């Protein structure tokens, strides 16, 4: 008999310890971190679709993400040929317990009764057979009324992970004796030697109605706030927009604290596969293929007398000489150099960037939008040069600017341009001028990507200088400094 489950993908993390690749506007789950050809988010979704047997089938996933990354989620799903059952937008980050409750509310409302397979979108798992076997075992326990978590048999005394002590045998799994916070090295060594402890993976299987019942019993305030926010949700294109005011009243809490440490129906299934939460650059290095000198290299890299290093080049050649045990990550606007043993402390750099108001913590020079992307080539006090790509059939909002004029030069493809009361068609090597205060829109009517160079001139060149009159993506009509540009 075929068994089905519903993947619930949690895609709202920020991944600050993987700066400068991971940024608030482009976090680690959407990046190809370990040279697999797809992002961690895409790997997570695909992992649920490509089963080795026909005994278990994944239904279309429910994705819970923040509003800023909604179009990235939709685009990355489209790129791998999959469509979500629902993409639910969190108005604010409230940890995993409220996020999963939103998915459970959706499933109950739509009478979807299969178990939820709850997966963070930024984990790396290798071993399809072991993953499938563990999911099958967990699904069976979930149907028997259990809230099931996956425990990873520890390979070393890690101090960066929480631990779970297993209890009595329960079918193909165990009851849960207790959850343990991240231990010191001596305690972690004892845990590994005892063979009674597993790493806490943060992945779960549970029926949606049981999840809600357990949340109501052990964290009723979260249950009430989430249910009220979901009942007041509205549809926005392909997204479900949860009521911000009601969701804002919800406290932030993880599933472990809200349910697992309190419930009497917790169970554990061992996942005997390679697993990593890819929480630091040292973890990324461990997950990558390494050369004869134990180096993990990505991009255009030359290494001489270099040993046990992670070197990643994104936009130019990076050469190393005589290095040992270092992390070197280069992007177009920032370079990180760190001791591998200190890679967990990268978050301190991010905190300093936030305190000083630096934009390098928010986005890369290439910024992705639902219609394509743009990247800054040159920026000065009175002018800015950008390269813009618009996907076939897509268009920017109808907008105007108070403080800048724009010159557009088409370098590839064809552009339809609304400029005031006129509509013009431009092809390669043709250009136009958009005076300050003029309503305008850019569209790609062709079948190949449109690329153009934009030269902005004016007294203020900030992305918040936009008044939006019409937008097919349902974005706000007027922007402010914290809002999403173009």
> Between the first and last Cα atoms, what is the distance in angstroms?
50 Å
- Mean pLDDT score: 91
General shape: globular
The proportion of strand residues reads 25-35%
Give the beta-strand count: 31
* Structural category: alpha/beta
Major sheet description: 6 strands, antiparallel
- Determine the number of helices (DSSP H or I, runs of at least 4 residues): 11
Relative helix content: 10-25%
Q: Give the oligomer, counting copies of the same chain as homo and different chains as hetero.
A: single chain
Spatial order of strands in the largest sheet: 21-22-23-30-25-28
Radius of gyration: 24 Å
Low-confidence stretches: 479-485
Structure, explained:
Helix content is 22%, strand content 34%. By secondary structure, the protein is of the alpha/beta class. The strands form seven sheets. Strands 21-22-23-30-25-28 form a six-stranded antiparallel β-sheet, with no helix packed on it. A five-stranded mixed barrel has the order 7-10-8-9-13. The protein has a four-stranded mixed β-sheet with strand order 15-17-19-20, with helices on one face. Strand 1, helix 1 and strand 2 (56-58) form a beta-alpha-beta unit. Helix 3 (96-109) crosses helix 7 (220-231) and helix 6 (208-218) crosses helix 7. The protein is globular and about 75 Å long. The relative contact order is 0.11. Residues 479-485 have low confidence and may be disordered.
